[in-house]
Every structure is written in structure tokens, then in C-alpha cells.
């Protein structure tokens, strides 16, 4: 997700951590994850070589699950876990690649997870696959989880970008106008890439940052007057990838009455430090994405406190491992207002929302610490899902959110 946003400045000083943890969640998470967890010693946490610049290096392509491999693995899991896991094609990318949703559980609360909206941010997809294997297993913990929640995951939701190993999708403005003739003569949207970006040259193969293409009005139809727009305004649903997730969200909302929680999995720059400058950040978290006062016309039950509680569920779970390879956890910058992101749009529609930002996109970090980062994401996801299912999330003090250390940017 990271694209050079500024560090937030809170007026209150960071309070010392209270040490209060999420009651009941730690043991539940340990039980659910037990078959899959193998912790490495902290001494192995830092690789010998870290690229803290912006130039493209070894992206570790072979280490990541490709779109074709993802399809085969989802098909295999669905076949093995018949009656427990359902995999559905919810749309296709601009270049015709399938976008899948994997669903498990029969609980009344829906947790929606998406990964790889930016194609150079890959650990989320691996974490989702691992989570699906664990959550669909025939174990007491997994059966309990499935009775409490309905988990819906969209791994690799931007497959064209994933196959190109870049941030933006593979789509031209001319293709947008062909799909939406009313936009003829309008200026291209501000998030249209036609020049070098994060080591990739979009001049001959343009694309859009799909994570700025959402709109809190889920029935919005693009209008020429709304272009080119800006990062402080909503998006337009002009890309098939965002349309697919929007339509899934709408269908879940119609089925369940609400989508309880939405978690979006991202990466950020590889060498951010914590607020004291003492440790490299393994992952940043956030539950805030919009300034709701500026978007009251779209407010359909915004729940910032609940998003903070969910964020703390992930933070407490990971912190509960103590001296572990999961490393330093921080708060993502809070002075952002992004109604054009999926997190911002769905937050305004009443979902609790959480952002995960692990260190290093592929162009700067490759597949370094792949196992550690994947497990960090998976454990954090499990902490949230368990807290939603048990109801423990509502017992967390949201004021503790401000105790999460800041990121030095």
C-alpha cells in the first residue's frame, strides 16, 4: 500500500504499554495454529543483505505462488475439504485471469480478506493459503472457528499485476473509455500509471493503482465530471478487479446484513524503524483510513473503535509470542484520508477494517524472510478472526490503540 505517505503526528504522547492482553484469544490462536507453526530463533531474524533503496533487485519470483499455481492449490484444497471449503470465480482481470473467492465456515459473522491488490506485495497470498489449510482442517479448533465465523478470502485479487510483479494492473485508459463511453473526453484518473513507478516502466504497458479505485457508494456509476479526481476523493470502479471485490462485498452484505470485518494485506518499504529508531519494522497495522467528518454523505455506520479493537486483536496476538521472529510491530501513519481504498470505502459502509503492511515489496526485498513474514501475517489474521468469532474483540479497550508504537518515517 505504501506510496510515500507522510508520518502521522499525534498530539498526545505515546503512553507506556499497559501489558493488558486480549483475554482468551492467545490460547485460541495457539490451538488453531498449532499444526502449522515452527518458530525460528530471533537471532536469525535479519538477513545479511538488505536493500533499503528503491532499485529493482532479485524479486524472488520463483518463491511466490503464481496465478496458475494458486488456481491448482485452491482446486486441490476444495477437493480435499469437500463440504467445508467452497471456491468460486467472482470475476476476471482485465487480461482475462480468474479472480477467486474461497469461503469456509457457517458462522453469522463475515470476515473478508483480500491480498495482492498490488502485484509486488505477495506474502498475503501465501498467508491466506496457509490460513485456509488450517481453518478447513478437521480439528476441534478449526471446527469451532467455522461455527463462529464465515471466512471469505480473495487471494491475489489483482492477478495481472501479480504476474507482472508490479503495483499497477494491466489496463489502458482507452480500454476504460471503451467500457464506459460516458468518459470520452475526460482526463485519465490520477492513479493511472504511464511512467516509471517502483522500478517498473509503465510507458509501454500502462496500468492503474486498483487500491484507489473504490467508492463508498457501492452503486456508484462513473461520471466524467468526477475525473481525474485525487487521493483525497473516492475512486470510480473503472477496473474489473475492484468491481469483483465490490460485487462480492455487496453480495455478502445482502446475505448476512453486514460484513463484520475486512482485512487488506499489503507491503511497505523494507527499512522503516520504530519510533525510537531501535528496530526495523516487521509489520505495521492500522484501523483508520478516512477522515469521516469529510465524508458524512457516505457514512453508513462507520465504526472506528471497532476497527481499533480488531487491530489490537492482531497486535496482541503477535506480541503474545514475546521474543519471537515476528519482530517489531508499529502503527501505520494515521494522518491519511483515503476513501478510494477498499479499506476506506468498506469502513464507511460499517465494516471493521484493518490494514497489514509487512516490510518490503519484491523490487526491494525479494523473498527475504519469506517464512517469517508469511507467518506474521497468518498469526495476525488468526488473532482477528478468533476475536471476531468469540466476541472477545468487543472487550478490548480501543484506547490502547494509541499505545501501539509509531513508525519513524
Q: What is the helix/strand order?
A: HHEEEHHEHHEEHEEEHEHEHHE
User: Rough shape?
Assistant: globular
Give the low-pLDDT segments: 4-27, 34-49
Let me know the largest β-sheet.
Answer: 8 strands, mixed
- What distance separates the N and C termini? 15 Å
- Based on the coordinates given, report the CATH architecture: 3-Layer(aba) Sandwich
The CATH topology is given as Aminopeptidase
Q: What's the rounded overall pLDDT mean? A: 88
Radius of gyration: 20 Å
Class in CATH? Alpha Beta
Total DSSP E strands: 12
Give the number of domains: 1
Oligomer: single chain
State the helicity in percent bands.
25-40%
Strand order, sheet with most strands: 1-2-4-3-7-11-9-10
Keywords: Hydrolase, Metalloprotease, Protease, Signal, Zinc
Protein name: Peptidase M14 domain-containing protein
Pfam families: Peptidase_M14
Domain Peptidase M14: 63-409
Task: Explain this structure.
The chain is of the alpha/beta class and 409 residues long. The protein has one domain (25-40, 47-408): Zn peptidases (Aminopeptidase), CATH 3.40.630. Helix content is 30%, strand content 15%. It contains eleven helices and twelve strands. The chain has an eight-stranded mixed beta sheet with strand order 1-2-4-3-7-11-9-10, with helices on both faces. Strands 5-6 form a two-stranded antiparallel sheet. Strand 1 and strand 2 (98-104) form a beta hairpin. Helix 1 (25-33) crosses helix 11 (370-390). The longest helix has 21 residues, at 370-390. It is globular, with a radius of gyration of 20 Å. It starts with 24 loop residues before the first helix and ends with a strand. 53% of the residues are buried.
